[in-house]
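Subject: complex prediction, re-run

Hi both,

The earlier run crashed halfway through, so I resubmitted it with identical inputs.
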Amino acid sequence: MLQSKLLIPTLRDAPSEADVVSHQLMLRAGLIRPLAAGIYTYLPLGWRVLRKVSSIIREEMDRIGAQEMLMPAMQPAELWQQSGRYSLYGPELVRLYDRHNREFALGPTHEEVITSLIRDEVNSYRKLPMILYQIQTKFRDERRPRYGLLRGREFMMKDAYSFDADWESLDDTYRNVYYAYTRIFDRCGLTYRVVEADAGTIGGEGETHEFMALADIGEDTVAVCSHCSYSANLETAYTRHGASPAEARTVPKPEKIHTPGVRTIDQLTASLDIEAGHILKTLIYMADGRPVAVIVRGDHEVNETKLKNALRANHIELANEEIVRQHTGAPIGFAGPVGLSLPLWIDQEAAIIESGVAGANEPNYHLRYVVPGRDFPLEHIGDYRNVTEGDSCPHCEGTFKFYRGIEVGHVFKLGTKYSAALGAGFLNAAGRENPVIMGCYGIGVSRILSAVIEQNHDDGGILWPMAIAPFHVHLIPVSVQDPVQRGLAEKLYYRLQAEGMEVLMDDREERPGVKFKDSDLIGIPIRIVVGKQAGEGLVEIKERGQAAAEVIGYEDVVTHVL
Ligand code: ATP
Ligand code: MG
Ligand code: MG
Ligand code: MG
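This time it finished cleanly. Structure:
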C-alpha cells in the first residue's frame, strides 16, 4: 500500500486524555480515534491489526472444531428476564426501546441468546459436544471506560460457548479451549500468565481461569509462584475490595445510617439456623443501606424455602452466585468475620467510591463509605486476602510474587446455570432429558491491541510482533523525487508483495526525519530504506527495535526478509 493514499493520521504529541502508553501510541500512530468515551473508530492500521488477531483466533478455534457463527447484538429483554439477569446486570447493560415500546438490550455477552438457540435447535446427545463462537462488537456501559481499547463501552470480543452431555466431557472441552487460548496469545506475542480466576480457591480446584497479560497498568493483581506453574488472580484487594490510597482519599469517612429491621450477619444466620460464613457468603447493600442480595453457597444443603422466607422477611432477595458474580464482579467464597458484613457493590473500585457501601455491623445500622484497607485491615476480609507477596505457595516450596495483569481472556465452566434457567435440555443415550452442560470462553480482541502495545514499545513508538503487525515491511525511499531511489523502491515494492509480504511504501514527499519518526511510531517490524546508495543497488535494512541498519544489495532483500 502507498502511504500517500492511506489514512494514517499520526500525531507528534499524545492527546491529553490518554494517560497510558498504549492509548497514547494508538492515537499517535493513527490506529484509532475516539467518538465518545470508550467508543472508538478503528482506522485502517488499527483495523488491519484487529483482523490479524481475529484470524489467529479463528484458526485456533477452528482447529479444535469450534464453529463460527454470528448472533444479533440487539436482544429482547424477555430473554434476560428469563435468566434473571435483566434487573441484576445493572447499569452496565445498555437498554433501548423499539418503536412498539418493546424493551431490548445491546449484548454485553451472549449466554442467553445462545442458550435459547440451543434449546430450540439441539435436542440429542448425538450433536454433542459442540462449541460455537463469534467475533462481535459487545456493549457494556462501563462505569469507568478508560485506557483506550483496554476498557471500552463498545469493544470487540470473541465469545465461545460449549455444550456437553456430561461434566467429564466438559472437562475435555474446557481443556481444548484452554490450550487453544494459549496458542492464540502465544501467536499474538503476548507475555501472559494463566491464573485461577477465583483466588478464593487458592489451593483448591479452579474451574475458571483468566489469561493475564502482564503489564504495570493492568487492573488485576496476580500472585505467581516462584517455583511451580501456580498463579491466581487476587481480585486485588485494591481494585476489587478497596481503593488505591489516592482513591480512598476521595471517599468520605464511614458514616452510620439507620436501617431499621436489618440484622447483622450474626443475627441473620442465627435466625436461619445456619452457620455464619458458611452458607451466607455475602450481603450486598445499596448505598442507602437496603440489602439487595445474599449469596448462598450452592454446594450446601439448606432448606431453600425456609431460607428464602427468612431472607424475604429481612427484605433480602435471594440471588444465585452466577447472577451476583455477573452483576458485581465479586468473587464467590468471600465471607467476612462474623458481625461485619462485607461491602460488595464492587465491580470496580469506582463503584465503591460512588455508591458507597455499608456493613451491617450493628443491629439496625449500616455503615456506608467503607473502604476496606482504609477503614479495617484487609486481612480481615477473607482467607485469601491473607496472601501477600513472599507467602508460600500451597502447592510447592515456592513463594508468591505479585504482578499486575490485563485480563485478555477468560474461560469458565458454567454447568447448567443457563440451560436450567432457559430450559435447554437434550435427550441422552438412554432417552432421558437432561440440561445441557455449558462452558463460556471470552477473549478481548480489541483489548489485545492495548496489551500488546503495553508490552512492545520503546520511546519511538510501537514494536509490533510480526504475526499481528499491520504490515510486514515498511519501505522508505528517502527522496521520492529521485528517479533512481523511486525506481528501486518500486521494484522492491512489487517483488516483496509477489513473495506474499505486506508492504507499506512511504511514497510521501516528506523530510526523511518525518518519515523515520512516523515509521518508528507505527512500528512495522522490518524497515527498508532506499537512499543515496540506490545507484549502487544498495539499501538499508533494519528490524524495528534494532539499533543499527545493515546495508545489503537489493537482490538480497527478499531472502533477507523471508
Ligand atoms: P473485566 O474484569 O476487565 O471487566 P470481565 O471479566 O468483565 O472483564 P468477561 O465478561 O470475562 O470480562 O469478558 C471476556 C473478555 O472480554 C475479558 O476477558 C476481556 O478481555 C474482554 N473485555 C471485557 N470487558 C471489556 C471492555 N470493557 N473493553 C474491552 N474488553 C473487555
Ligand atoms: Mg467487567
Ligand atoms: Mg474480570
Ligand atoms: Mg472475566
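The chain is about 30% helix and 25% strand.

- K.
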